[in-house]
């Protein structure tokens, strides 16, 4: 049995699609399922930067139309009835997904908004808190539905790291996504420096950040204490040591919850809104809509205020502990086993 992953990572798309596919691939590999990532050349460097990457890669030519992609896949990928075809990209239209579902194997779709139309897939994964309200029963009546926070996937490193007590944590952590498409890292550094905050700041960035050179220069010249972590390979440990986190509200928010991190979440894309609002209702974070207007000073002011109120941070920490659920991966594997036997 194989699992074929069709996904992407890029400066514009970020790394969220790739990372949640990687989380599933790690879990499937533990069940002796061979995982192959079918991706274009632009995505491969993002894979190779991961120290925990251990999956086969089959490169698909860039720039193909959906019709050409289907033809290429039929000619170069040998899918059997026992295999899984896992899709995670906003580039895939309903037509492409449904035609791909006609191939042997079971098609599994990561989705966020249910805005593509009718889907003929075997299983849909949307782990956002409000996913059950998105009427997948109407658009994908034949699919198994793995919806809501009971099906949140986590990468393996988050199972081997335990959350530290809040009293053992020291840093304000900034993490703006794999590529930081809105340039928020530098903007927040400047805002924190202008406010002259008395917090040890840890900024997580990647070598794919277009502003990295400017960020390094600012870290050296700024007044506040900043530790710059580039291409972080132990994010679970970083989050476990974070007293307060300001983060883009992608799938990273689920990793923050797993490490019980009081957080301020920044919604930078439409697909993040539902999940961020659901997380906010759980009480361990607050969310801000950064899709158009970016209220950076407001977020920094709130972070500074929370820093001096440990009782509020403790309440957020306790709410995270209440809602922390590490069984989502196991539940999803059970559902996949219902499609095909996973021993």
Overall description:
Helix content is 36%, strand content 19%. It has helices at 16-30, 44-48, 66-76, 94-100, 136-139, 184-195, 212-221, 235-240, 252-258, 273-282, 296-307, 310-323, 328-339, and strands spanning 2-7, 34-39, 56-59, 84-88, 106-110, 123-126, 144-147, 171-175, 201-205, 226-230, 242-248, 263-267, 285-289. The strands form two sheets. The chain has a seven-stranded parallel sheet, covered by helices on one side. Strand 4, helix 4 and strand 5 form a beta-alpha-beta unit. Helix 6 (184-195) runs parallel beside helix 7 and helix 6 (184-195) crosses helix 11 (296-307). The longest helix has 15 residues, at 16-30. The chain is globular. 43% of the residues are buried.
Total tally of structural domains: 2
Query: What is the straight-line distance between the termini?
Result: 11 Å
Shape: globular
How many strand units?
13
Secondary-structure-based class equals: alpha/beta
CATH architecture name of the largest domain: 3-Layer(aba) Sandwich
Q: Indicate the low-confidence ranges by residue numbers.
A: none
* Helix percentage: 25-40%
Q: Helical segment tally?
A: 13
Kindly identify the CATH topology of the largest domain.
Rossmann fold
């Amino acid at each position: 049995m194989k699992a074929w992953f069709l996904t992407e990572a890029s400066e514009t798309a970020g790394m969220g699609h790739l990372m949640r596919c990687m989380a599933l691939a790690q879990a499937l590999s533990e069940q002796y399922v061979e995982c192959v990532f079918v991706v274009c050349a632009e995505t491969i460097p993002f894979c190779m930067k991961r120290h925990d990457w251990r999956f086969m890669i089959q490169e698909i030519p860039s720039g193909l139309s959906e019709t050409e992609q289907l033809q290429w896949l039929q000619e170069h990928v040998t899918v059997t009835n026992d295999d899984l075809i896992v899709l995670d990209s906003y580039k895939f239209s309903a037509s492409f997904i449904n035609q791909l579902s006609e191939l042997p194997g079971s098609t599994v779709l990561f989705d966020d908004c249910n805005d593509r139309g009718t889907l003929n897939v075997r299983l849909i994964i949307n782990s956002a808190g409000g996913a059950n309200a998105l009427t997948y029963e109407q658009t994908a009546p034949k699919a198994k539905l793995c919806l809501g926070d009971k099906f949140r996937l986590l990468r393996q490193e988050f199972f081997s790291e335990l959350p530290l007590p809040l009293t053992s944590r020291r840093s304000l952590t900034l993490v703006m996504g794999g590529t930081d498409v809105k340039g928020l890292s530098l903007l927040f550094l400047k805002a924190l420096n202008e406010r002259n905050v008395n917090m040890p700041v840890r900024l997580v960035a990647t070598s794919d950040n277009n502003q990295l050179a400017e960020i390094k220069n600012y870290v050296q010249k700024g007044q506040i204490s900043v530790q710059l972590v580039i291409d972080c390979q132990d994010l679970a440990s970083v989050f476990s040591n974070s007293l307060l986190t300001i983060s883009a509200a992608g799938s990273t928010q689920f990793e923050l919850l797993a490490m019980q991190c009081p957080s301020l979440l920044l919604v930078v894309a439409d697909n993040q809104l539902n999940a961020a609002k659901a997380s906010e209702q759980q009480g361990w974070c607050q969310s801000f809509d950064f899709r158009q207007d970016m209220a950076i000073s407001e977020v920094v002011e709130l972070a500074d205020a929370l820093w001096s109120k440990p009782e509020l941070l403790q309440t957020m920490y306790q709410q995270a502990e209440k809602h922390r659920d590490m069984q989502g991966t196991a539940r999803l594997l059970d559902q996949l086993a219902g499609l095909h036997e996973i021993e």
